[in-house]
Amino acid sequence: MIEITGVSKAYGRQHVLKDVYWRVQAGEFWGLIGPNGSGKTTLLNLISGVEQPDAGSIMLQGAPLSSYTRKSLSRKMAVLQQDGLPRVAYPVREVVEMGRFPYQDWRGREKHEDNVRLVEGIMEKLELTELADRPLSVLSGGQRQRAALGKVMAQQPELVLLDEPTTYLDLRYQIQFMELIADWQKQDGLTVVSVLHDLNLAALFCDRLLVISEGGIVAQGPPDEILTEKMIEEVFGVKSHLVVHPDTKTPQLLLQRAIEK
Ligand code: ADP
């Protein structure tokens, strides 16, 4: 799905990404982890085409990213930020419908009934039906994030890029959000690349983790191979205990207070 070969990116004199090689297969769920400022968002911005690399190449489904038009790219991939939508006056239903823009023809038309059915189905799945006519400006952060996910789902992409999507969500909505993405991945073979700060969520939901530190990839692979106390100390500068989740058998992190050193 994505092939990144020898990619580097600098802002002025600051080398933010250095010679990155990374392959993402269709249907995988990747978590991008690493300290603040390590280059995770920059990597997402390069994949979404918002930024251009200084060196190296990025291929999407076998073709250079630069060969796609904006419209064809937005049928293939969708991006969701940590605070997905501003507090504007648009009602939820209209926001979800905006996800269909990349499919409208030059007259701005699309087959009406299919569209309505799709949007209704998504709103039901995301428990947005009751909020359909409410403007975004009166919704809670969690509700707005669900509306943002609805818009992204309506876009029917093959790849979603998520940048810390659960940051402003409470525990229940964090799990709900990740479950919705994981269900979508399993049902439709969606490819997911998500920056995540919460390593426990990352271990629970991701098939693979990419660890970035100071603009370079330091490890990549399944969570149970990648998450080690040594890696966490080296990359995040934090001492931890890793335990095995009793249900999923994935690693989970217990933080240590500095005082216990
Ligand atoms: P992360 O997502 O891992 O926190 P970022 O990719 O956002 O890291 O940022 C990596 C570094 O690049 C940071 O030092 C940041 O200040 C810098 N940076 C990111 N975007 C820009 C930009 N548009 N202009 C200048 N510097 C930037």
From TrEMBL:
Domain ABC transporter span(s) in chain numbering: 2-239
SUPFAM superfamilies with a match to the protein in the record: P-loop containing nucleoside triphosphate hydrolases
Transmembrane segments: none
A Pfam family this chain is assigned to: ABC_tran
Regions annotated as coiled coil: none
GO MF: ATP binding
Keyword Translocase: yes
InterPro entries: AAA+_ATPase, ABC_transporter-like_ATP-bd, ABC_transporter-like_CS, P-loop_NTPase
Keywords (A to Z) from UniProt: ATP-binding, Nucleotide-binding, Translocase, Transport
Organism, as annotated: Paenibacillus puldeungensis
Keyword Transferase: no
Designated name of the protein: ABC transporter ATP-binding protein
